[in-house]
Design goal:
Layout lengths: L4 H6 L20 E7 L2 E5 L7 E6 L11 E4 L5 E4 L2 E4 L3 E9 L2 E10 L5 H4 L15 E5 L21 E5 L9 E3 L4 E8 L5 E7 L5 E10 L8 E2 L4 E5 L6 E7 L6 E3 L7 H8 L13 H6 L4 E2 L3 E2 L8 E3 L2
Parallel strand pairs: 2-8
Antiparallel strand pairs: 1-3, 4-7, 5-6, 7-8, 9-10, 9-21, 10-17, 11-16, 12-13, 12-15, 13-14, 14-16, 14-17, 17-18, 19-20
């Protein structure tokens, strides 16, 4: 992974988020260094684009509160007005910053703000397996009763994500976790007492939000950074909990949760076929099947019964 110089510098530099008005109109001094973080960004139409600016003068000292001049290679994709930068159309645009004789740029990949599953079908856009599959013994099915209820509000009392249970012979904290696609890390949050929850959006379908739970992150993995498909994010955090992954078209609140098996590419699914998963559908309990085998839960959290449908896919 190429860690961004701007990201490291941002920890010690005084930064001004793009989209905020500067407090001074005085021209900047001559600069020896200017950078933007991140240098690539996925977004959906309507998103504000916030960039962190790091600048140094010719003596190497940090220049605080610098607001560079911005331009967009395609104002129909990324619009710059006053102190704000906004994704306004589907496509790719380069945002360039200039100040003090230096320039820097960020490439912005903008996708549509909606995706119609009914007409467009499963997206199949994630080209890399998020986890070290040879170390996994079994996977819970979408809408299972494993763990706790996890829904998008359109359904109740079912787990609309997948749990990955490492083999008993494996040290669970050695299970590697990867970026399933190129895209932007939108958020990082502590995840109970076991590692972190990572939220990201892929470049090829940024309306798809991916959440990977219980990761012990590598150093250098930070919010807003760009990752490429297959970049190492860290390792599974603990033997006290399984790894799990969830994804939705749009945010979980107001979005539609879908199965990871509906989002992975054919080449990734072939890895599961090699472990005995015959079809993508085998990993999914349909809404109708779950409704016909209801599983009450307490407060939309813990299940009180497990139902009669198989919860697990055992890998060979």
């Amino acid at each position: 992974m190429r860690y961004k110089t701007a990201c490291a510098a941002a920890a010690v530099a005084a930064l001004l988020g793009c989209g905020q008005e500067g407090t001074s109109t005085a021209p900047p001094p001559p600069l020896s260094f200017l950078s933007l973080f991140p240098d690539r960004r996925a977004a959906i139409v309507g998103d504000p684009i916030t960039l962190q600016v790091t600048a140094r003068d010719t003596a190497g000292a940090v220049v605080a509160n610098l607001v560079p001049d911005y331009t967009s290679s395609d104002p129909g994709v990324v619009e710059i007005q006053g102190g704000s930068i906004t994704a306004v159309g589907v496509g790719t645009a380069t945002v360039r910053a200039s100040a003090g004789g230096q320039t820097a740029q960020t490439i912005v990949y903008v996708g549509a703000a909606s995706y119609d599953l009914a007409t467009q079908g499963p997206p199949h856009v994630l080209p890399f397996n998020y986890i070290d599959l040879p170390k996994i013994g079994r996977i819970s099915r979408f809408r299972s009763t494993v763990g706790h209820s996890y829904t998008d509000g359109s359904e109740t009392c079912r787990s609309m994500k997948h749990y990955y249970e490492p083999m008993a012979t494996v040290d669970w904290t050695t299970v590697d976790v990867y970026a399933p696609a190129a895209g932007t890390i939108l958020g990082i949050a502590t995840d109970g007492g076991w590692g972190y929850r990572v939220r990201m959006i892929p470049r090829d379908l940024p309306v798809l939000q991916i959440q990977i739970f219980h990761v012990q992150l590598d150093s250098g993995i930070v919010k807003d950074m760009w990752v490429d498909a297959g970049d190492h994010l860290g390792r599974h955090a603990s033997a006290f909990t399984m790894s799990d992954i969830a994804m939705s078209i749009g945010p979980k609140e107001g979005g539609t949760l879908i199965s990871y098996f509906d989002a992975m590419t054919d080449s990734v699914f072939a890895e599961y076929q090699a472990r005995g998963v015959a079809t993508r559908e085998a990993a999914i309990i349909t809404e109708a099947e779950r409704d016909s085998d209801p599983v009450p839960c307490v407060g939309e959290e813990q299940f009180t019964v497990t139902g009669t449908l198989p919860d697990w896919l055992d890998l060979n």
